[in-house]
């Protein structure tokens, strides 16, 4: 039986969005006009990357232990 990790997948999605925003920040003209939450999102890319990899490793290890990768 395959386990469902919707909450963890959602967290991984938001971390991925932060990583993409970080990489696109240098290409955006008028970045100073963006609201503070958008600028904060763009600045947390390195932290989001570490979080994404740690969470992905956790999900993979739990899935592998339960054998859900083989089905």
- Judged by helices, strands and strand pairing, the structural class is mainly alpha
Largest sheet: none
Rg, Cα atoms, Å: 16 Å
Detail the poorly predicted runs: none
Number of domains: 1
- Number of E-type strands: 0
| Beta-strand content | under 5%
**N-to-C SSE string, H for helix and E for strand:** HHH
Number of helices, counting only DSSP H or I runs of 4 residues or more: 3
Shape: elongated
What share of residues is helical?
Answer: 55-70%
Distance between the termini: 7 Å
Q: Which whole number gives the mean pLDDT?
A: 83
List keywords for this structure.
71 residues; mainly alpha
In short:
The chain is mainly alpha-helical and about 70 residues long.
Descriptive account of the structure:
This protein is an all-alpha fold and 71 residues long. The protein has one domain. It has helices spanning 6-24, 36-43, 45-66. The longest helix is centred in the last third of the chain and has 22 residues, at 45-66. The radius of gyration is 16 Å and the shape is elongated. The mean pLDDT is 83.
